[in-house]
Amino acid sequence: MTFDSLSGWLAWLESQRPEHDMVLGLDRVGEVARRILPEKLAPKVVTIAGTNGKGTTVALLDALLKGAGKRVGAYTSPHLMRFNERVCINGEMVSDQSLCDAFEWVNTARNGTFLTYFEFVTLAALAIFSQRSLDVLLLEVGLGGRLDAVNLVEPDVAVVTTVALDHQQWLGHDIETIAAEKAGIYRSGKPAIFGDKVVPSSLLSVMRELGATPFLRCQAFDVERGCQGLIFKGVGINGEKLTLSGLVAPDLPLTSVACALQIIQLLSCELSVSVINAELQSVSIGGRMQKMSVNRRDGRSVPVILDVAHNPQAAHYLAECLQTLLPERRLTAVLAMLSDKDFAHVVNIFDGVFSEWHTAAVSYAPRALPAEALADHLLSRGERVQCHGSVADALDAALECNKEHNAVVILGSFFTVSESLRHIQDKRCCVDTVLMTDSF
């Protein structure tokens, strides 16, 4: 089977087994990997797992490593606008042709072995990286850790950013079980970073069983706010304690900042505070507190924030950010979620945050939660709600709110943010792609 276009390959992969229909395990994908991949893909490999903050940590690491003059490959998922976002080298997406060639390579090498969508894509990404001269390879885990296809690759440093309830049908129904699954990316004798302040006992147990070297937040490293900016306290490659002061505070979770800065130390990258600050200021990641300004039909500009928050932990973070960033704004929500998410818990976290909700269903029918289910729950809690046939319709209605000082917040899933961004681009109504915080 071969295709001349990336869209052809992706449609075929989806038809073989949809991306959301996963089979965890390393036996099949490992068998194919041994046929096509070298033992070492890059001098240094960093694997990033966690419930939330994985993509942000990758983006921060990518920027900081760039500041250190390193050539970096980064594998992330899912994407927002283009599939190519998943495979980047030095911050640039690889070409359609590179992906098509890699898909062809994997398809030939598998020799009939069944691979899921994610396994097939992961092998293609790794095949591309194996043909490039990289200094550091960043690999974001797709789901869990222990049985995720990314865990085929031996990391030099592994980090679990956070552990919270999500994907319970795959990973387990409690924090301890989920933490143990994520800790499966750690390796004997290698740095094992954990970014949450509260450490699950199961994660510590797995660290000990594997013989990994623990680097725990609040013990080995942390970031705190000071009078002159952020202060990072961490550990160097030789175990020496170090402190970096006067760091810029990016509009990103401090957990990701702390993890990224500690990883940089363990990779022996010597960066001055000025270089770190330049890179911290340059980092942006789509769909994570992404700020835009969008025109209404009457020409008035409306602040819009897009965030992929889809689980309770991410919702808590978003709610706190909104109350800090937009305390005087009247906030209107555009919400669409997937059917396998704890939508009631997510919605309840925003009690008192939004004055009005506009619900919709994402266009990916196999996983879309009906807009009516969201609306019914919100109405039962006394919220003002309008139900719409699409995310685009919900966004248009939210933008036309007649109240002054209105701001629109789009949340609920990667699909929700992606469809909103496409609608904004199609209408060509974007005024500024990113606004400074004080513009809000």
Give your account of this protein's structure.
It is a single chain. The chain is of the alpha/beta class and 440 residues long. The chain has 2 domains: 6-282, UDP-N-acetylmuramoyl-L-alanine:D-glutamate ligase (3-Layer(aba) Sandwich); 290-439, Protein-Tyrosine Phosphatase, Chain A. 37% of the residues lie in helices and 19% in strands. It is built from 15 helices and 18 strands. Helix 8 links the parallel strand 7 and strand 8. Helix 3 (54-67) packs across helix 10. It is globular, with a radius of gyration of 22 Å. It starts with 5 loop residues before the first helix and ends in an 8-residue tail after the last strand.
List the helices and strands and how they pair.
Layout: H1 6-16, H2 27-36, E1 44-49, H3 54-67, E2 72-75, E3 87-89, E4 92-93, H4 96-110, H5 117-130, E5 136-140, E6 157-160, H6 168-171, H7 175-182, E7 191-194, H8 201-210, E8 213-216, E9 222-226, E10 229-235, E11 241-247, H9 254-266, H10 273-282, E12 290-295, E13 301-306, H11 312-325, E14 330-335, H12 343-348, E15 356-359, H13 371-380, E16 385-387, H14 391-399, E17 406-411, H15 414-427, E18 430-432
Parallel strand pairs: 1-5, 1-6, 2-5, 6-7, 7-8, 13-17, 14-15, 14-17, 15-16
Antiparallel strand pairs: 2-3, 3-4, 9-10, 10-11, 12-13, 12-18
